[in-house]
Amino acid sequence: MDYLTLAFDRPAEAWNEALPLGNGSMGAMSYGRLREEKIELNLDTLWSGTGRSKENKNTDVDWDFLRQKIFDGEYEEAEAYCKENILGDWTESYLPAGNLHIDANIPELKEHGSYQRQLSIKDALEQVVYRQDGQGYLREFFVSMSEPVMALHYRADAGSGLELRISLDSQIRHVCSGYGISELVLEGQAPVYAAPSYYSCEQPIVYEEGKGIRFAIGISVQAPKGCIRQKDNTLLVTADGDVYIYLSGITDFQAQDSYLSRKKQMLEQICDLSYPQLKEAHKKAYAAYFDRMDLTLNPGIQNDLITKMFHYARYLMISSSKPGTQCANLQGIWNHNLRAPWSSNYTVNINTEMNYWMAESCNLGDCHTALFELIDRTVKKGKITAQKLYGLEGWVSHHNIDIWGNSDPVGKYAQDGSPCQYALWPMSSAWLCRHMWEHYCYTLDGDFLKDRAYPVIREAVRFYLGYLTEYDGYLVTCPSTSPENCFLDRKGEKHSVTFASTMDISILKELFATYLQICKILKVDVLEKETEFALKKLPPFKIGHDGQLQEWYRDYRETDIHHGHVSHLYGLYPGNVIKETDQELKKACEISLNRRGSQGTGWCMVWKASLWARLKNGEKAFELLKNQANLTHT
Asked: Which of 173, 177, 247, 373 is the most buried (most CB within 10 A)?
């Protein structure tokens, strides 16, 4: 098995069968259809909204009242109070930019014909090879890692000829026009609101004149042995041999003043390109990331597939998080829905962090910097949230973030009846700090630690020192949830809001210990004594009714024993709070994992596999990976 190539014998029929290509700022989903192709396009900075505040308009939350309700076990009242007074509006949504349509006069595939499309993970290059009735066709496609350009090359055997109809469109309001004999430009302005797909409302997509992110997509076509003409905003190409298509795009996110000049520069650039030179520069630039490491496992079909998955993950990281571009969102940079699943935002109670677990260990630490840029934007908003919502110093973020760095809890308008179980979680700021510390641990970059990581981590610590409250001789988080999971109280009723979830305490044990270590490295003592005191006062881990690591301070039973999130095991992985010598706690983690089971959606099986690996149980980790890949046991 070639573990550096994805190969298929037919075009994609659905989005999840298409091949993703990208360079961090631009993404494309290629279906490999030669006759009627639609390549779906994305720009990493094309989001709905204007960066407006999403906060709950109540600025006078009675935290003492709420905490007392929780400590007294009056969870229903507490949750109702939280939804009414704390939760705010939804984040903004990541949007699809447009579609490149290419209709070709290539004959239909019939008996005795052949077709293959493949993606070279090693070169970030797609090829479609097609033969029918003695005629051969090739399509090659890449999104350049050296220039902000997508490039397609169509080639037909001598005498076969090519006739192509090329056009652009978008689901977003737009206009399309020609600006030369062989060029088209599409321009649009994003909506100021795009409701989540799970939220029903009369106007899910809202536009306002003059507001929203502007964007432009340009294409230019070269046919060395052919002719190109325009008709109805479509490029009609007739050629013998080769046709080259170049595409680029920009938005005015955080660059409104330079938008027109950048658009002009972008259009001029794609008119004067050499495909061979662009291809070689792309391969060289991509190799600078991909060739930094390799992985070899013992031969065997299962190991080969896992090796391929490993390298494909590195490919996706490089393609969606190149330095200088935006952080990889829920779908990397690939989204074809105007109302994407979960708004294709940054879900920071696991998914965004999981995207970057591999960054440092796979020698892609500079891809990590896109996340740090998002953190920096979120810190600015998070300081406002900390002060206005909690009356505290420092910064905080919750379970959803968007490109604007939204830091407020969402869910006020939820129609599912239980938004607190996912929205009321002010712990992502602490988890995100872990990534900055990990980057330092791998690089030992003292300037990064002092100038970038330390200020962010210090201000997160400042918030949590204020957020903690006393209970039973400990300092605890309250309100608190275990992300997206619920428990049964003593009356057998389902709830999510309580205090001192195990994940909260695990994250803070790690954050505080990390901060104290940084203080020693940098020889600073800001908040050092307060942090030492708080760390000692955090409650210990507890072992529950079945010998499992308790998920909450009290020994509740979870409503879903097979719940996808294994948040209470954060201290084992990705954290390192539960140490190798903590045999009793490690056993409790093992019992918790067995209770959760070996099935689930892809991301949660990867997390559980990682936890089994941390427990040094390779067989269980491998079982999860096989389940994640839907392999049959042989």
From this structure: 247
Summarize the confidence of residues 42-57 as an average pLDDT. Answer: 96
Pairing mode of beta strands 135-143, 26-30: unpaired
In the 8-state DSSP scheme, what is residue 201?
-
Residue 525 has pLDDT above 90, yes or no: yes
The pLDDT of residue 1 is 54
Q: How far is Cα of residue 76 from the mean position of the Cα atoms in its chain?
A: 33
For the record, the structure tokens of 169 come out as 């469109």
Q: Report the C-alpha gap between 23 and 20 in whole angstroms.
A: 10
Q: What are phi and psi of 619, to 5 degrees?
A: -65, -45
Tell me if residue 19 falls in helix, strand or coil: strand
* pLDDT greater than 70 at residue 520: yes
Strand pairing category for 183-189 and 150-156: unpaired
pLDDT of 393 > 90? The answer is yes
Contact 431, 514 (CB under 8 A): no
Q: Which residues contact 304 (CB under 8 A, 6 or more apart)?
A: 1, 3, 297
For 41, residues 6+ apart whose C-beta sits below 8 A from its C-beta are 26, 27, 28, 96, 97, 98, 99, 100, 150, 217, 247, 249
Dist CA 582 CA 67 (whole Å): 32
Sheet holding 494-495, edge to edge: 494-495, 487-488, 557-558
User: Where do runs of H (alpha helix) occur along 444-527?
Assistant: 446-448, 454-467, 502-522
Question: How many angstroms separate the CA atoms of 398 and 423, rounded?
Answer: 7
CA separation (Å) from 319 to 151, 273, 295, 628? Answer: 15, 22, 19, 22
* Residue 473, both tokens: 């001789």
Residue written as tokens 């479509």?
234
> CA-to-CA distance for 567 and 271, rounded, in angstroms?
51
Beta pairing class for 474-476 and 469-471: antiparallel
Q: Which helix (H) or strand (E) holds 474?
A: strand 474-476
> Strands 346-347, 114-120: parallel, antiparallel or unpaired by DSSP?
unpaired
Q: What is the pTM of this model?
A: 0.96
CA distance 3 to 564: 29
- Pairwise CA distance, residues 575 & 572, whole Å: 6
542's CB contacts (< 8 A; 6+ apart) are 502, 549, 550, 553, 555
Q: How many residues are listed for the chain in this entry? A: 634
pLDDT tens, position by position, 239-295 = 998 999 999 999 999 999 999 999 999 999 999 999 999 999 999 999 999 999 999
Q: Is the pLDDT of residue 112 over 80?
A: no
Using DSSP, state whether 7 is helix, strand or coil.
strand
Q: Which residue has the tokens 């949230």?
A: 385
Q: Answer whether 428's CB lies under 8 Å from 435's CB.
A: no
Looking at residue 238, the DSSP 8-state letter turns out to be: E
